[in-house]
Amino acid sequence: xxxxxQPAEDTLLLLDAVERLYGRVFRRTLEIGSGEGLVTxxxxxxxxxxxxxxxxxxAVHNTWRRLKSGGSGNIAHAIQGDMLxxxxxxxxxxxxxxxxxxxxxxxxGDKTIEGGFDFIKRLxxxxxxxxxxxxxxxxxxxxxxxxxxxxxxxxxxxxxxxxIKLSRKLFFEELAVIExxxx
Length: 183
Hints:
alpha/beta; Rossmann fold; 7-stranded mixed beta sheet
C-alpha cells in the first residue's frame, strides 16, 4: 500500500483555492497532510515561510524534494508528525490548509483517506490555538464527511467565520473547500 496520498480531484480543488490567494503574501503558512507536495509548492509562492506536516515519512520526503527542486528549500520546513501536535500554541500561522482524510473510517487501515468528521473536528480544534487573528483556514470536505451545515456551525463555534469558497460536483460526491477566517 502506498502511504502517500496521490493528487486527485480534491487536491486540485484545494490547489485552485490556494491559487486564488495569489497576489497576497502570508508571513507563515502550513499544510497539514502534504502528500506529494503539490499544494505546499503553491503555498511557497505566497509565503515568506512555509511548513508542511504529514504522518507519512514518504510524503515528507516527496514534498521536501519538490520544494527543494522548485527553489523553495530556503523558506520551507517539511515535518513528519500528527497534525499540529509539534507546534506550540500562539499566533503562528496566517494560513492553514488541509485536504484531510475526510472519508468516514471503514477500518481499511489507510490513514491517507480515512478520518471523517472526527478527524476534521480535531484539525479545527488544534488550528484554533495556532492561527493568527484574521488568519485563514482552508479545508476540503465531501458530502461523505457528514452534514455540511453541522460542520459549518462547529467551525463557527470555534471562533471562525466559515463559508464555502469552492465546490465541485463529481459523479459520486460533491467536494467543497471551506474558507474559515478567525474572528
